[in-house]
Design a protein that fits this description.
Order of helices and strands: EEEEEHHEEEEEEEEEEE
Number of helices: 2
Length: 210
Amino acid sequence: MAESDWRLEGEWIKNCNCAFGCPCDFNAPPTHGSCQGLVAMRITKGHFESTRLDGLCFAAVVDFPGALHEGNGKMQPIVDERATPQQREALFNILSGKHSAEGTMFHIFSMIVTTIHDPVFVPFEFSFDKNGRVAKLVAKGVLETSVEPIKNPVTGAPHRIQVMMPDGFEHRGAEVASADIHSTGEIKFDTKGTHSSLANVTQTPRGVAA
C-alpha cells in the first residue's frame, strides 16, 4: 500500500437491483444473477493529505455480470461539480484504491472493476435520514435514486430491519430500505422497490473506522 493520510466521514447509500437484504452482504449470488447498482456518499468531514473534502458528494454506478467477487465490473464515477481540481484529484486518489490497504473497500473495487467510464461532474442534490429510512440523490442528468421504508405487504406499515457487519469493509451497520433507481449515464438501468442500505460510515486507508 502507498501510505497516505486520508479519511472520509459521512452518509452512505448503497442501492442495487437485488431484493431487500442485498445478497452480497451474505456472500450469496445476486438476486437476478447480475448486479446493477450504485454507491454514494455525502462527505460531512474528510480529507486527502492537506486537501479538505468536507461537504462534497460523489457516487459510482456499477454493473457486474455476476457476483461481485467474480469481477469484470463496469463503473462510472460521478463527482460533485463544486469540487476544485485539487479536490477532484484527491477523490480519485481515494477511489483508485492505490492508497488503501488490501482487503479494504476501495482496494477491493480496484480489483473487481475492469472498465471505468469517464467521470462526469454534475450538481448534486442529497438528502439523508438514516433512522427514517428516507433518502434521495439526484446527480443532474445521469442518476436519480430515492429511498423509503420497506412496507408491510399486508398492513402497509413501515417495516424496519438492520444488517450488522462487525467485520464489514463497507460499513459496520446499515438500515435496510426500498430504492427506486433511474440511471441514464454510461450504465443505464431502472429499478423500482429494490434493495437499499443506508449507513453512517468512516473510511480510512486501513478500512472502516466506524
